[in-house]
Design goal:
Length: 415
């Protein structure tokens, strides 16, 4: 199955989220006004804030003047909501929940205060390029499906979906424990999926939990690459994607699915190397990605397809053509580059690609997928890097992304 937001306010250097004085006062008034059943929670919350923060930090927090990350922003909403639930407040779990929120809050505050996210501090070659991710996770149940014989394709798909659906509900249960329940939806194939939405102050973020062959696939929307290094989204990704996967004993789906990385068109076009530079460098770097990810069937380089000599020859012709234009200063469109590669190179299939994949869909199953480079609105236009193994962590993703963005900027593979 093919896999498929307001101005920033800068304070204390590069931190971009601000809780107003009025909001801070409002939240604490709500905690202070909790009825008798809420006193225990309030006391525990205050005690843990006092214990974890200095007097100065505590004063800032009470007045609402502290600029903090999105998780801290939403944490007070969670406390407020818990205060409204008398049944929860009578239990030890209610108190523990408050403590967990406050402790997370403090960690977020300190992390953000120590290291803000910005283009200036980014270690990535193209920090402003947008990046969307497809993370895949699998387990023994999924893997066992490959050892069974099925009457037909439908039976196999039903068994795969049953495992996914159970995991999707378990994922939602874990997230609901953090006060972030999922929103049931349908994916583009009319299959059940779950969307988790995060109110990050001045910016919203979300991810989708969807089904794919032999794995749970997590799809994230495009965000600036630098936001994957540090900040609210980076921390949310660590805790609410990789953290939840770990709690459910799911492993990175390197035997099923992959860690596809989508690079926004605008960022690629803004470099001197352009689209042709990135394609050329990535293909030159093929040996690295082949060793890292053995999934040639679903994401082959030109040298791995059935008619590899023809594919390599066509690739060389196009690289020579457009790099020649680049050197001469002759104008050309990256739309033309994408169209030519789709027409002459990305039409060759791997020998093991199932016959059920139609010829017009073969361009999707390549190391680089250019199907969406000039399709849809600008925010959707992208290059999908498919020959990437599933990531075990955000740090692993950053390692892969660093290499890709270096090539996108320079048009050359790493030495």
């Amino acid at each position: 199955m093919p896999s498929r937001r307001r101005p920033d306010r800068h304070t204390q250097g590069t931190i971009q989220r601000h809780i107003t004085v009025d909001y801070g006062i409002k939240v604490f008034k709500q905690i202070e006004s909790a009825k008798e059943r809420g006193f225990q929670l309030r006391a525990a919350a205050k005690k843990d804030i006092r214990k974890s923060l200095s007097e100065n930090e505590y004063g800032e927090l009470r007045s609402g003047k502290l600029v903090i990350a999105a998780e801290a922003f939403t944490a007070f909403d969670k406390i407020r909501n818990v205060c409204k639930n008398p049944d929860l407040l009578t239990t030890l779990n209610g108190v523990q929940y408050a403590r967990t929120i406050i402790n997370d809050n403090v960690r977020v505050i300190r992390n953000i205060k120590e290291s803000g996210s910005s283009d200036e501090s980014s270690k990535l070659a193209l920090p402003s390029i947008t990046v969307g991710n497809e993370f895949t996770f699998t387990n023994v149940e999924f893997q066992d499906l490959t050892t069974k014989e099925w009457k037909n394709k439908e039976e196999a798909e039903e068994a795969n979906f049953k495992i996914f659906h159970k995991l999707m509900l378990a994922w939602n249960e874990k997230m609901s424990g953090y006060g972030i329940p999922g929103k049931p939806m349908k994916d583009k194939y009319k299959q059940d999926m779950m969307r988790f939405e995060f109110d990050l102050g001045l910016e919203n973020w979300s991810y989708d939990v969807t089904v794919d062959d032999g794995c749970v696939e997590i799809i994230t929307p495009p965000v600036q690459a630098s936001k994957l290094e540090v900040g609210e989204i980076a921390m949310a990704m660590d805790r609410y994607i990789f953290g939840i996967a770990s709690k459910l004993k799911l492993d990175a789906g390197q035997k099923a699915g992959g860690g596809h990385i989508n690079l926004g068109r605008v960022g690629l076009e803004g470099t001197k190397a352009g689209l042709i530079g990135f394609i050329s460098a990535f293909y030159e770097d093929a040996a690295f990605w082949m060793k890292l990810d053995g999934d040639a069937k679903n994401a082959p380089f030109p040298e791995e397809v059935k008619d590899n000599e023809k594919a390599k020859s066509e690739t060389e012709k196009l690289v020579e053509k457009y790099q020649g234009k680049l050197l001469e200063g002759t104008k050309y469109s990256d739309d033309d580059v994408a169209k030519d590669f789709l027409k002459y190179v990305l039409k060759f299939r791997h020998k093991d690609l199932p016959g059920s994949v139609k010829d017009e869909d073969v361009s999707h199953y390549q190391a680089l997928n250019l199907d969406h480079f000039n399709a849809g609105n600008l925010n959707e236009q992208r290059v999908e890097v498919r020959r990437v193994p599933a990531q075990e962590s955000r740090i692993e993703l950053l390692g892969q992304l660093s290499r890709l963005l270096s090539m996108a900027k320079t048009g050359k593979p790493p030495k």
